[in-house]
Amino acid sequence: MRMVRWTCNVKVKDRVSSKELRERLGIDDIILMLQQNRLRWYRHVLRKEDTDWMKKCVEYEVEGSRPSGRPKRTWREVVQRFPSMQFEQGGSYGS
Length: 95
Known about the structure:
Blueprint (H helix, E strand, L loop, with lengths): L1 H7 L9 H8 L4 H17 L6 H7 L15 H6 L15
């Protein structure tokens, strides 16, 4: 946001919201951009053959005990949280 504020010639003390500055410049929210990039990659992987190594890696489940604490999220869990994508049991995607 430092570069966005510098480009708009706005200081923090001017109390202009980040959302308003992004709208001025026509920039998407970084979280939205990350979600779009992840979805694009995940859809690419879903179109692969079932025998492809990349698809096997995404669907691979590690055997054995886990370390203590909250487990890390899988790609599928991360992508399922996106509101623009709804999963069915077969792993297909929709709009």
